[in-house]
Structure formats: C-alpha cells, structure tokens
Amino acid sequence: MFKRLFGRERSNRTITDALYAEIVAAARQPVFYSDWDAPDTPLGRFEMLSLHMFLFQQRLHGEAGAAREVAQILTDDFFAEVEHSLRDLGIGDMGVPKRMKKLGRMFYGRTAAYADALERGDREALTAALARNIRPDSETWPQADALAAYVIEADNMLREQASETILSGAIRFPVAGAA
C-alpha cells in the first residue's frame, strides 16, 4: 500500500515538475523582453509567468480528476516560487504575507480579465488588459498587440493538446514572434 502511494506521489511530482518547467520556459522566451518590451524585472517576469500559468489553467479549466489535481499542484508551486522569490529579493518574514496577498489578488484579477477577453473573442480587450497589467508605466505599448496574438495562438494550441498528453507531463506553447 505505501509503495503504491509513495510511488504515485513521486510520479505526480515528476509530471508536475516537467509541466512547470515548460510553463517557465515559455514565459522566459527572450522575444518577450527584447522585442516586445516586457519589463525584464522581477515584476515583469512575474507578469509573464502569471500569463503562462493562466494559459495552462485555462486549458484545464472545467476538467475533473487528475487534471484538476495537477492544475492545483502547479498553482501551489507557482505561488511557492513567488514567495521564494520575494525572500530572495530580501523581503522579510513580516512583509512576505502582505505582498503575497497583493500578488495573489493581482494574479486572479488578471486571469479574470484575460479569460473574459478570450471567451468573448475580443482581441482589443485582451490587448488592453495585457498593456494595463504588463506595462502600467507606459501610456502606450505598441507590442501589446503582438503579445495578444501570441496569447490567442497559445490558447488555441493548448486547446488542441490532448488532456492525456498534458497529464503525462508534456505541454507545448508557441514560439513567440515566429509568425
């Protein structure tokens, strides 16, 4: 009994680690920062990772069983990494919970805006939400439309991937700027 239990846990960890690595790799594509002017700062990287976590969650939304479990594990891993990053940046024990709460609100607010725009097929609303969230310091961000096109492409690509493939630890995101 214990072997089966612990064996499954190790197998799940291998799968979720592989998925998380693919999500992080997609969020770190150099074109986002070099060509599309996403801020290459801790907050900018949080925004890009949040966007890719959203795309992953969007793909598994509404699924049950193992898919729901994997989505929850990856969400937990994401927030654990965010907390670890805050500590690496020198935020003390007293400041971490306050900042985590703020970052959690930011994440879920963004995912609601992105999901709404995608569900309505409203590229303009998606572009505006991306610009507002990723480049709040700029009045205009011309590259936001390119990022919106990428998000739409990624959403479509993820929807085409079989759940069984994803749950085996394999997920593909588009190459940013390739089109």
Automatic annotation (TrEMBL):
Pfam families recorded: Ubiq_cyt_C_chap
Domain Ubiquinol-cytochrome c chaperone: residue ranges: 36-173
TM segment ranges: none
Positions in coiled-coil regions: none
Classification via InterPro entries: Ubiq_cyt_c_chap, Ubiqinol_cyt_c_chaperone_CPB3, Ubq_cyt-c_CBP3-rel
Taxonomy, superkingdom: Bacteria
Similarity annotation: Belongs to the CBP3 family.
Name this polypeptide is given: Ubiquinol-cytochrome C chaperone
Organism: Mesorhizobium zhangyense
